[in-house]
Amino acid sequence: MNQGMYPLAAAMVNQINRVDVVSNNLANSRTIGFKEEGVSEGTFNHYLAKAKMDGKKSEYINELTNKVPKIDQKYVNSSQGAIVNTGNDLDFALKDPNTFFAVLTQNGDVQYTKDGSFKNLDGFLVDSNGNNVLSADGEPVAIEEGFGQAVGVFKIDYDNLKKYGNNNYKLKDEQQVAAQVEAMEDNEKFVLQGSLEGSNVNAVLAMVQLIEAQRSYEQAQKGITGINDLNSKAITKIGESK
């Protein structure tokens, strides 16, 4: 195979992954508390160096192959979404980008979310999936007078979280990271009751990114087609000359 095909094929794979991420962002441009995701690229040389640092055996192939682009990581844009007043006492918005609400799932797992569109279930505050919203002490919040002050607010760095589903997060390593979760004793500085934080996705920009990714994919595809045509012509000429 012509070595020029390797980076072009890798570029196509990267753009497919980018289309998936941007499409998901676009689909959630109106999802309460949703945070836009992005992807970054690195070269294979980067992973060789990383493997060497981790004490793993790695092999250098050649200069071209080792510069093949690869999706390096996904990241979350933590910027604040627009806060809209709803007048509903069961709605809550967070004013600090690095703060989250906590919910207890039916499996006993604690997850974190920016979606403060809560409901009343048998006198307790729950999220859209029926999971109990937790207080700063980790207890389910009962809906009674002044219950808004009982809603827990937790400060966590995004680097310590991994996306779970579309709109929730879990700690990457609960034993090591749990100590870095800070429960705010007074939530009044961080919460707006009767409001919701919208998605931080710019739908127009996401559409532009989607078009760019699709065009980049098409350009890489045309590059492979061009190389294949050149190879076919070269083989034909060599065959005719014999």
Protein traits:
alpha+beta, 15 strands, two-stranded antiparallel ribbon, 31% helix, 242 residues
Q: What separation lies between the terminal Cα atoms?
A: 23 Å
Record field, number of beta strands:
15
* Helical run tally: 4
Relative helix content: 25-40%
Mean pLDDT: 85
The assigned structural class equals alpha+beta
- Beta-strand portion reads 15-25%
List the helices and strands in order.
Answer: HEHEEEEEEEEEEEHEEEH
Radius of gyration: 24 Å
Tertiary shape: elongated
Q: Quick one: biggest sheet?
A: 7 strands, antiparallel
List segments where confidence is low: pLDDT < 50 over at least 5 consecutive residues.
Answer: none
